[in-house]
């Protein structure tokens, strides 16, 4: 087996050629008509870089390290002052040693100050010293320094159509990019893209629809109303012809005003019947129940209707796109411990007649 450095150098020195080989492979698949269904599953997974966490700096880490070094400087200065006042209290050679330590700490502080200026210039306020492209990101409740690897996999033949390595820990802004890459690689003008809840973002779904891509992404349930025993937005029916919402009590809530939230135009709906409504305790803890609706909410509703017609869509996504990541991480050694399987002869039942042989 080649050394890891050999593999890393080969990938670094031949990156352009490797990409051309991948492109040629996808082109060969297109010539064999393997992508006629034009359905892909998209997912991302975090891969750890060689950059140790201590070699990844953020503003908070830099501040903590500076405070530790400043405390060390104060400690050394106190000892040097004591040596000046009481020359005989310190062992011989201690003063030159303290002077060297103090100079080393001040040099480290100068290096951190230079890194601080570099940190301010970085777009995401991070600096990785070993692997400059790696970034600190969260994965399953723990932080790693690495990459967010995105793939689009064909659901029919389970071939990786497109891939991309990003420094962004979240998947929410990756749907359009990966679906467009897959569409171009497959040579298709239309495409169906399956993704999990982590890719749900209104602007991304709208951009896919406008590009001829049909996204199928379930909406995350972020409201606590159902858990608290109250109605949530799904219990309110939108009437597009009248541009009103009909509440569970049968009252109609017209549009009151619009505002911009995070760059999205949001319309607010409310009925005047809330204060006297007998169902208000089951609806809201406020005096009025307000319903928010994105100006392009119809795109999300159409996608949800498609998902309702394809109940196995997320199962197809899981068995298509998660397997390559599992295989890659198994090759890299990220496997769970498991008991060794007993030999086949020990697992099969043996009759008395077979034992005699």
Residue share in β-strands: 15-25%
Low-confidence stretches: 343-357
Q: What is the element string, with H for helices and E for strands? A: HHEEHHEEEEHEHEEEEEEHHHH
Helix % is 40-55%
- Radius of gyration over C-alpha positions, nearest whole angstrom: 30 Å
Number of helices: 10
Described by the principal axes of the CA atoms, the overall outline is flat
State the secondary-structure class. Answer: alpha+beta
Number of strands: 13
- Give the biggest beta sheet: 6 strands, mixed
The N- and C-terminal alpha carbons lie at a distance of 43 Å
**Assembly annotation:** single chain
If you average the pLDDT, what whole number results?
Answer: 85
Describe this structure in words.
It is a single chain. This protein is of the alpha+beta class. Among the domains are: 53-128; 233-301, no CATH class. The chain has ten helices and 13 strands. The protein has helices spanning 4-13, 15-31, 59-85, 94-121, 175-186, 202-210, 297-309, 313-331, 344-347, 352-356; strands spanning 39-48, 56-58, 126-128, 135-139, 142-154, 160-166, 191-194, 213-216, 237-239, 244-246, 252-261, 264-270, 290-294. The strands form three sheets. Strands 1, 4, 5, 6, 7 and 8 form a six-stranded mixed β-sheet that branches. It has a five-stranded antiparallel β-sheet with strand order 9-10-11-12-13, with no helix packed on it. Mean pLDDT is 85; it is low at 343-357.
């Amino acid at each position: 087996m080649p050394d890891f450095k050999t593999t890393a150098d080969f990938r670094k020195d031949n990156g352009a050629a490797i990409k051309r080989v991948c492109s040629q492979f996808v082109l060969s698949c297109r010539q064999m008509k393997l992508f006629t269904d034009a359905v892909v599953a998209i997912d991302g997974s975090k891969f750890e870089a060689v950059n140790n966490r201590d070699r990844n700096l953020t503003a908070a880490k830099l501040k903590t390290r500076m405070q530790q070094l400043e405390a060390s400087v104060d400690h050394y200065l106190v000892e040097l002052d004591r040596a000046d006042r009481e020359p005989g209290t310190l062992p011989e050679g201690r003063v030159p040693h303290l002077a060297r330590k103090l100079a080393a700490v001040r040099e480290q502080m100068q290096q951190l100050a230079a890194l601080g200026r570099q940190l301010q210039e970085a777009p995401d306020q991070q600096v990785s010293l070993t692997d400059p492209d790696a970034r600190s990101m969260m994965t399953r409740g723990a932080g790693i320094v690495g990459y967010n690897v995105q793939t689009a996999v064909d659901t029919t033949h389970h071939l990786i159509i497109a891939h991309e390595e990003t420094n962004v820990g979240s998947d929410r802004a990756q749907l359009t990019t990966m679906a467009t890459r897959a569409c171009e690689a497959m040579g298709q003008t239309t495409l169906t893209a399956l993704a999990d809840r982590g890719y749900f973002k209104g602007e991304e779904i709208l951009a896919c629809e406008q590009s001829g891509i049909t996204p199928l992404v379930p909406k995350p349930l972020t409201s606590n109303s159902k858990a608290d025993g109250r109605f949530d937005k799904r219990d309110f029916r939108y009437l597009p012809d009248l541009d009103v919402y009909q509440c569970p009590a049968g009252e109609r809530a017209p549009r009151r005003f619009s505002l911009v939230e995070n760059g999205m135009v949001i319309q607010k709906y409310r009925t005047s019947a809330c204060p006297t409504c007998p169902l208000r305790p089951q609806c809201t803890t406020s005096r009025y129940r307000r319903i928010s609706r994105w100006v392009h909410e119809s795109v999300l509703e159409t996608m949800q209707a498609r998902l309702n017609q394809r109940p196995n869509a997320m199962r197809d996504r899981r068995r298509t796109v998660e397997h390559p990541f599992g295989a890659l991480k198994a090759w890299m050694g990220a496997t769970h411990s498991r008991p060794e399987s007993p030999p086949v002869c020990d697992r099969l039942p043996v009759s008395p007649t077979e034992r005699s042989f």
